[in-house]
Design brief:
mainly alpha
Length: 100
């Protein structure tokens, strides 16, 4: 096999894996945050090397940091939500026939 063809396959494979991880994170954020938190706890143990502990700190989800400026809205401490009337009234859907 040609070396340039192998590099092409590796780059395409990495792009596919990265897009799948991104899509999975967007579709199941709570599950991926749980997985990241578990990996972070496991890698942050003192018996691991310094670079592994740094990776564990980097994998820690934003919600686990306790920073109120990240806007996660999981704890409800970021302030009251505006009333429904301020956000806009819900309007029913209107279906119209197509114009030929």
């Amino acid at each position: 096999m040609n070396a340039s063809l192998l590099i092409q396959y590796v780059v395409i494979g990495l792009a596919v894996v990265a897009s799948a991880v991104y899509a999975f994170h967007k579709m199941a954020p709570q599950l991926t945050n749980r997985w990241l938190a578990a990996a972070s706890i496991r890698y942050s143990q003192p018996e691991h090397a310094a670079w592994v502990r740094a990776l564990g700190r980097r994998l820690q989800p934003k919600q686990a940091t306790g920073n109120c400026s990240d806007g996660c809205s999981t704890c409800g401490a970021c302030g009251p939500k505006p009333p429904v009337s301020a956000r806009g009234e819900a309007r029913p859907l209107e279906f119209r026939p197509r114009q030929h």
